[in-house]
Amino acid sequence: MLDAIVTAEIGELAQRLVDQLRADITDKSVTPYGAINASGTLRSSIRWELTESALTFYAADYYPFADAGREAGKMPPISAIMQWIVDKGIADSKVPLKSQAYGIAVSIAKNGTVAYRQGGTHLIADVFTPKAILELSEVIVRGVGLEVVQKIKTGFKKRA
Q1: If you placed Cys at 82, which of 89, 101, 136, 152 could pair as Cys (CB 3.0 to 4.6 Å)?
Q2: Quick check: 59 pLDDT over 60?
């Protein structure tokens, strides 16, 4: 089990990464249409968990589309696009919502999303930078090292 101080330090670093990712989802203009956030569901889904064997980060199952965009091909679900239009507050009262969603879905099927066409939003890469990963790795390695040293000391005491 990791030392309490190391566990706290890992938790602080992990939370800092989650907080930055949540802020970027809400505030960072990643396409000409602004931030990725629509309903807040994706933002709320971002979390971390530390167990004895792993530090894991979680997000809603559609996160890859928010980060990399969606390539051309299959049409996305009309209902999801309708909800996105409502959540973003971009509905045109002169055109039925389903028609707006259908037009967007056809465009995505034909061209991919704007985020995809521009090479992704880079939300993950901009937060989980090599520097951030190195910092987190150093704390984890130090913690594991302390644990190994403690086990060695304990092992020697039992055999003495």
Answers
A1: 101
A2: yes
| 17 within domain boundaries | yes
Q: What is the mean pLDDT of residues 81-109?
A: 95
Measured from the Cβ of residue 20, the count of other Cβ atoms closer than 10 Å reads 17
The domain tally of the chain equals: 1
Distance CA 88, CA 29 (A): 14
Residue 99 lies in a domain: no
**19 lies in a domain?**
yes
**Does residue 110 surpass a pLDDT of 70?**
yes
Mean pLDDT of 9-34: 93
Of 43-52, 69-78, 143-152, which range is least confident? 143-152
Report if residue 112 sits inside a domain: no
Q: Which domain holds residue 136?
A: 4-37+44-60+121-159
Residue for token digits 């994706």?
42
Residue 62 predicted with pLDDT over 60 = yes
